[in-house]
């Protein structure tokens, strides 16, 4: 692979790639973070940590000497968190008990 192609791949991982992967990680974090006392910590913490996640991915893409390692880490994180989100959307909701259905009607 030419040096020019490697440079553009690195720019892709550092620029739009880091942003998109950070968004996917943020969406997946809401599924594995604990809810906390107010029941919203799993939603607020990913929003607060988004700039840190983006910066970590950006600087890793810029500073790591091995492009393969950059790709494995970034795509691995993206696949794991996208899988968590996809699993959440694909799972069927739990069946409601008859007592809960009766309470919902009243």
Automatic annotation (TrEMBL):
Keywords: Membrane, Transmembrane, Transmembrane helix
Protein name: Uncharacterized protein
Classification of source organism: Bacteria, Pseudomonadati, Pseudomonadota, Alphaproteobacteria, Sphingomonadales
Transmembrane segments: 12-32, 44-63, 70-90
């Amino acid at each position: 692979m030419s040096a020019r192609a490697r440079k553009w791949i690195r720019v892709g991982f550092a620029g739009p790639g880091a942003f998109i992967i950070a968004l996917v990680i943020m969406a997946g974090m809401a599924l594995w973070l604990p809810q906390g006392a107010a029941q919203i910590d799993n939603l607020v913490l990913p929003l607060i940590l988004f700039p840190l996640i983006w910066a970590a991915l950006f600087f890793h893409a810029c500073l790591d000497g091995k492009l393969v390692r950059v790709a494995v880490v970034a795509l691995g994180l993206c696949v794991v968190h996208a899988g968590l989100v996809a699993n959440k959307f694909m799972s069927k909701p739990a069946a409601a008990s008859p007592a809960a259905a009766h309470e919902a009607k009243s």
